[in-house]
Design brief:
Number of strands: 0
Helix content: over 70%
Distance between the termini: 65 Å
Shape: elongated
């Protein structure tokens, strides 16, 4: 009996540790959603979109389609993120119970996986829609810009280590 209690305690502790180590980006996202930070980010984002459209030579018609697509996509993603948040809270609450239901936890986890898959599907559908709106040349430029953006972010994110490796390669 004592072994079962210890085993359950270890399992609960391990699962709670995993959930406590959720990506820092979730915490940062919450911080940015309040007050001026959000307004500044939105304005900065809109400026970047306008600049990208200018660089790609996007027409007014394309710009309108892209805007409508972006708004629809953001709404879908927000709804999914909200559902994911609810499910994570439900799993946390279930795990905190003294006599938790393991089957219930696993069922909620399966729902979370389904929602995450839906997010990936929406992301892919979004990319495909952008590809339909832009010409081949525009999409190619867009893809190149996105690669630059991602590699720039990695360099900034991980900083000195990657920069040092790059500097050594250049020597």
């Amino acid at each position: 009996m004592k072994t079962k209690t210890i085993s359950k305690s270890l399992i609960v502790s391990a699962v709670l540790c995993v959930f406590m180590m959720l990506p820092v980006s979730l915490i940062q996202a919450k911080e940015h959603k309040s007050g001026e930070g959000q307004k500044w980010n939105k304005e900065k984002w809109e400026e970047k979109v306008k600049e990208m459209n200018k660089q790609l030579g996007v027409t007014q018609e394309q710009e309108q389609k892209l805007k409508e697509h972006r708004e629809k996509n953001q709404a879908q993603m927000k709804a999914l993120k909200d559902k994911l948040k609810e499910k994570r809270e439900a799993i946390r609450q279930e795990l905190e119970k003294t006599d938790f239901n393991e089957a219930q936890v696993k069922a909620i986890q399966n729902e979370i996986k389904t929602l995450q898959n839906q997010k990936e599907d929406i992301r892919l559908e979004g990319i495909l829609e952008v590809r339909k709106i832009l010409s081949q040349e525009q999409f190619k430029k867009f893809s190149e810009k996105m690669k630059e953006h991602k590699s720039f972010g990695k360099g900034e994110k991980f900083g000195k280590h990657e920069k040092r490796e790059k500097d050594e390669e250049e020597k």
